[in-house]
Amino acid sequence: MTRGDFKRLSRLRLQEATLLVKRKRFAPGAYYLAGYAVECGLKACIAKKTRQYEFPDRDRLRDAYVHNLTKLVSVADLQPALDRETRADRDFDVNWTTVKDWTEESRYDAAIDTRKAQSLITAISDPQHGVMRWIHRFW
Questions:
Q1: 20-34: b or e for each residue (b if 16 or more CB lie within 10 Å)?
Q2: Which of 29, 30, 34, 124 is most exposed, with minimal Cβ within 10 Å?
Q3: Which pLDDT does position 110 carry in this prediction?
Q4: What is the pLDDT of residue 99?
Q5: What residues in the chain have per-residue pLDDT under 70?
Q6: Number of domains the chain contains
Q7: Residues in contact with 126: Cβ distance below 8 Å, sequence separation at least 6, in sequence order
């Protein structure tokens, strides 16, 4: 997969999640897809940092193949930028707190309702304070 593939997937998964919630359908699926959009966005940031012909560090490579958003921020070398953003923007900090706890296991969680899915989508897509707006600066 290329950086462009991850960027396209990120946008597509967020669109799909938004449509599902608008139709009040498949809340666990919408929640999962929204979080997956962030994962793909962070993986685009990681892909941007790789250099052609560079032999990858084993630990960094292994850590890039996870579904943990906090770990992906670290692999993308974005932790200092995230710390600055959360200190400077209280609304972003609240949004990141909502988003960072997403896991791939959410796809199996029948307890996720439309309200929780919408909350995640809003935290991700808020045009002023959203997590995706922040990721776009780096991908």
A1: bbeeeebbbbbbbbb
A2: 29
A3: 86
A4: 98
A5: none
A6: 1
A7: 91, 95, 133
Give residue 123's domain range.
3-136
Closest CA to 109 of 52, 31, 40: 31
Give me the numbers of helices (H) and strands (E) for the chain, helices first please.
Answer: 8, 0
Residue 129 has what pLDDT? 98
- DSSP-assigned states of every residue in 71-93: HHHHHTT-HHHHHHHHHH-HHHH
Q: How far is CA 9 from CA 13, 36, 38, 40, 74, in A?
A: 6, 9, 10, 7, 21
* Tokens encoding 115: 């309200």
What pLDDT score does 44 carry? 97
Q: Does the CA dihedral 99-103-104-106 come out positive or negative?
A: negative
Q: What is the DSSP secondary structure assignment for residue 129, as one 8-state letter? A: T
pLDDT tens by residue, 1-40: 899 999 999 999 999 999 998 887 778 999 999 999 999 9
Query: Any idea which residue has 């959009």 for tokens?
Result: 37
Dihedral sign for Cα atoms in the order 29, 30, 35, 38:
positive
